[in-house]
Amino acid sequence: QKEVEQDPGPLSVPEGAIVSLNCTYSNSAFQYFMWYRQYSRKGPELLMYTYSSGNKEDGRFTAQVDKSSKYISLFIRDSQPSDSATYLCAMSAPQNGNNRLAFGKGNQVVVIP
Amino acid sequence: GAGVSQSPRYKVAKRGQDVALRCDPISGHVSLFWYQQALGQGPEFLTYFQNEAQLDKSGLPSDRFFAERPEGSVSTLKIQRTQQEDSAVYLCASSLFRHQETQYFGPGTRLLVL
Fold this sequence. Notes:
The complex is a heterodimer. Chain A is mainly β. In chain A, 0% of the residues lie in helices and 53% in strands. In chain A, 34% of the residues are buried. Chain B is an all-beta fold. Chain B has strands at residues 5-7, 10-13, 19-24, 31-37, 44-50, 53-56, 65-68, 75-79, 88-95, 104-105, 109-113. In chain B, strands 2, 4, 5, 6, 9, 10 and 11 form a 7-stranded mixed beta sheet that branches. A 4-stranded antiparallel beta sheet of chain B has the order 1-3-8-7, with no helix packed on it. The A-B interface holds A 4, 6, 8, 32, 34, 36, 41-46, 49, 51, 88, 90, 92, 94-95, 97-106 and B 4, 31, 33, 35, 40-45, 48, 55-56, 59, 91, 93, 95, 98-108, 110.
């Protein structure tokens, strides 16, 4: 079993819809939780990060972390065609002396105009 | 300011050839990471440097993979005797502090081994 599970199925939504993405994880040592956006043939770009449990909102994006369930989510409101990309969840446990990121497989999101 | 840069952006190698991939991190960034991203997968950790010290190389898939960062800035990932399974995108990331959670990624080097 991988440390981080993310159902890699592609997701197509009409413009203006809410996009909902999630990941589960098995390592209870993870303390930082991130969402990266990756456009085709580009490197991942940090979108949101959260420390421990809770919610964080930034414009149209909301990240949620539930450590008791080992479950994280990303919501994109009023989705735009420019949001079409692959979204990767990532986690780290820097208290272990190494800030290496453990990634999910990624979700390819297509927002249809 | 300038972000993380990587070169070459694309590399085609014949099986058995040695390759060297370069990463220029953001100036002043202490931590540097290499990841391997296979097609349709998320990045997988390879190795981690803090300044010039390689503190974790547990993700390197075999002894054909070698990384260095001799002066604590530019890093090189070398793959000897490349195999077809080495075909992937190799991503470099840097962060400012030792335990800073924000890693900034470069565009990657896309390696194809024929």
